[in-house]
Amino acid sequence: MGAAVWLRSAGVSDALSLARLHHAARAAAMPGLREAHGIDDVARWIATVLMVRHAVRVADHGDGPVGYIGYGQDDRHGPMVLHLYLDPAWTRRGIGSRLLVEATAELGSRLSLFCIARNAGARAFYESHGFRIAATSDGAGTEEGEPDILFVRDGAAPVITRKQAGATP
């Protein structure tokens, strides 16, 4: 796993790999999470909704994706990170930071996102990148039935740059 990781735009051919990664990351971070959709349904949604309406960037090491981010404009919340998932074997290597820099470079530093409340690793990651809790829910309106958090980062928050994240322009 010492291979270099580069970022690229996602293509429809990535959808199944990203769906598998999505499920693996969530299972590792939140054991026992009730997945509302199987891998094939998630792949279909990634290819026909996420990739069509929003930007999707992939972290790749040559043998396939090790992470991805989906981001864009949300009608209610404005600039938003919609998905950010890493292969559990590739966490804590700066890849998530690099992916977040991609969204920031395109959308600006004011971003929002939702995070399942019990995902302690994701919460710590977002808080370390200047996000703060704006609202919480009891999970009644979520597909997983899990309490969630709306995180926001305003334009004044410290932002990791591409250089700091080890990314190349």
> Count the strands?
7
- By CATH, the topology is Aminopeptidase
Low-confidence stretches: 160-169
End-to-end distance: 23 Å
β-strand percent reads 25-35%
CATH class: Alpha Beta
Q: How many domains, as an integer?
A: 1
Shape: globular
Class by helix and strand content? alpha+beta
Q: Summarize the helix and strand pattern as letters.
A: EHHEEEHEHEE
Q: How would you name the CATH homologous superfamily?
A: Gcn5-related N-acetyltransferase (GNAT)
Q: Which CATH architecture would you pick?
A: 3-Layer(aba) Sandwich
Number of helical regions: 4
Could you give the order of strands across the largest sheet? 1-2-3-4-5-7-6
Radius of gyration: 15 Å
Largest sheet: 7 strands, mixed
Q: Kindly state the mean pLDDT as a whole number?
A: 91
| Fraction of residues in H or I helices | 25-40%
Keywords: Acyltransferase, Transferase
InterPro entries: Acyl_CoA_acyltransferase, Bact_Acetyltransf, GNAT_dom
Domain N-acetyltransferase: 5-153
Protein name: N-acetyltransferase domain-containing protein
Q: What does this protein structure show overall?
A:
The protein has 169 residues and is an alpha+beta fold. The protein has a single domain, classed as Gcn5-related N-acetyltransferase (GNAT) (Aminopeptidase). 31% of the residues lie in helices and 27% in strands. Strands 1-2-3-4-5-7-6 form a 7-stranded mixed beta sheet, with helices on both faces. It is globular and about 40 Å long. The protein starts with 5 loop residues before the first strand and ends in a 16-residue tail after the last strand. 31% of the residues are buried.
